[in-house]
Each structure stands twice: as C-alpha cells, then as structure tokens.
Amino acid sequence: MISENGVEYIKAMCETQANMIPGGVIYLISDGNTYTWRKASNEFDLNIFQVGEKVNSKGVTSKAMRENRVSIETVPRSLYGVRLKIVAEPIVNEQGQAVGVFSTVFPITNPVLKSFNDFAPVLAEMFPDGAVAFATDLYKYACIQNSKKFQIPTIKMGESFKEDTACAEVIRTKKPVLLKADASKYGVPVLIICHPLFNEDRSEVVATFGLIVPKIVAENLIGIAGNLENSLEEISSTIEQLASSATEIHSNEQKLNNSINEITGLSVQINEVSSFIREISDQTKMLGLNASIEAARAGEVGQGFGVVAQQIRKLSEESKGTVPKIKKLTDEINFKVAESSEKSHNSLSSVQEQAAAAEEITASIEEITAMAEELNKIANKL
Q1: Dist CA 66 CA 29 (whole Å)
Q2: Which of 11, 55, 61, 200 is 20 to 30 A from 103, alpha carbon to alpha carbon?
Q3: Enclosing H/E stretch for 83
Q4: Where are the transmembrane segments (predicted)?
Q5: pLDDT band for position 111 (50/70/90)?
Q6: Which CATH number does the domain 220-381 belong to among 3.90.380.10, 3.40.30.10, 1.10.287.950, 1.10.860.10?
C-alpha cells in the first residue's frame, strides 16, 4: 500500500520513468470514483482511463479500494483492442484506510513481438535473396522488417490483413501455415511461413509471426530442370530413331554382304565355264584339224567336208579368243566385288560402332534425365 503523503513523490517518479518502460505504460491515480491523474508513455497511450472519467465499479481499481489490498487483473483484447495487465494498489491515510488507488497499466505483448525490432533486421538479411519478416496482432500488421535485397511495399505496418492471407489462416486454425504464392501476388514467386503466437498459458492465439522469402532461384531451377528434361526427351527420342535406323542399315549391309558373297561365287562359276569353253575350243580346233586332214585325203570328194572343217577351226579360234575377254571381265568383277566387300565390312563395322555409341549415349541421357528430375525435386523444396 502507498501512503497518501508519498503520492507526489510517486507522481514525480512516474513522470520521469514513463518513457523508460519497455513496451510502454499508463500510470493512474483515482479517488475511488474518478480518475484524478494520468501519465502515459509515448510508446503506449490508448484513449482510455482519462482524467475525470468514472472508475468502473466492477473493475480492478474499485476492487483494490473496497478490499484495501493490491489487486491484479488481466483485461482481454476484446475490451480495449489490446490485452492489458492492470496492477491497482490502494493509497491509504495515516489510519490505514483506503482513500484512493494508484494503478499501473501494461500492455501484454508476446515476447516475439516485444523483441521483434532486435532480431528481425538480422533475420531478414540472413537469406541469400533477402526476406520480409512480419508480425501481426489479431487484426493488423504490427511489425514489418524488409531486407535490403527484397521488399514488399504493399505490406504496411498498421494496415489490416485480408482474410485470404497466411496470418488470417493461422489465427483461425491456431497452427503454423506454409504457403507458396506465384509472381502475381508480390512480383516474384515467394514462400510464406507463418506461426501462431500464444498467450501465457497457450490457450489463445494473440499474434502471429511470419517470413516471406523469394523463391527466384528455386523457380529458375525448376524452369531449367523442366527445359533440360524436355530437351533430353527429344534428344533421347532422336537417338532412338538413329539407333533404329542403324539397326536397319546394319541389316541391309548384312544382306548386301551376303549378296556380294553370292556374286563372288558366281564369278568362280563363270571362271569354271570359261575353262570349260577353252577346253571345248581346243578340242574343236583339234577336230577341225583332223577333219581337214581327212578332207585332203579324200580329194575332190572331201572338198565340202574341208570347208566345214575350216569353219570349225575358225569357230574354235573365235571361241578361244572370247575366253580372255570373259576372264578379263570376270577379274574386273572379282576386283569390284572384293572392293565392295571390303567397304561393306567397314560400313558394317561402323554401323555396329554407331549402334553401340547410341546405346551408350541413351544410357547417359537416362542418367542426366534422372538428375534433372532430382534437380526439380530439390528446387521444389527450396
């Protein structure tokens, strides 16, 4: 209890200390019925408990007067728009009777909000692309801290927040909320994290604290990963077509090689036929010579047979002359076939190498595609 003789000293002390109290304070003196003196700090000065205003007969001040003892009361936000703690202490005369009440009114502020200006500037600058830290009461933005790299001018301290915001949902659900917003809301894609702040016994949400973090890098990574994945799919599809073409070419080259081998076999057969023609020519020539000899022996009777023998020898000579030509052509065919066969083997080997390389590239692209998908997952988590 306070002696009425010391009231003036208390007033003088309050005048000095009002602006030194963290969070602010309102000092009051009443005679039990009416407030007779008031001192508020600059930081906290609600338009309540004015000098000349009647004391609430059911309030803590009247209770302290009636019971002649210190009384403490917590006032809910619904009454004055802010939670208050009021400590009322009787002022007594020399006989110990209560002749007035000295009251101290403190705003009840969550510790996070109370220390916001101390930690928020540091926290906002800790993110690579910057961040915006904010705190709200149940209706409006109470504190805003923009970073150097990232600011949101549309969010202003003292403005009411909308029903579709993260903080409004936190107050409704009493649970933390994490939201993603595209560039249409704040100019860049962002991640919004908001947590509820409770009263002393954690029975009531009294405020919220949140961060808005730009996701520019993550969004770019998602775009890069998507483009990379699409490009790899197109490349993979093209390589599959090339591999399919290579397989078909390989098959055709194999058939060509088989055909060349068949031609080579035919050339051998032609050579055999040429040898046979040479033998027939030699035999025909011999028969023609024998026929000429017999025709000479026969004299005049064998003249006609001699003409035939001469024609046979002539035909034999012509047949024999054809054999070198056939051999020359056959040799040329064999040379071209051998040359084509070598090229076919080389082409066949190249196609096989191409098919093997295509398989290796396809396997590598599958690995890169998997990496692109993993990159996309990581970007979504940022």
Answers
A1: 15
A2: 200
A3: none
A4: none
A5: confident
A6: 1.10.287.950
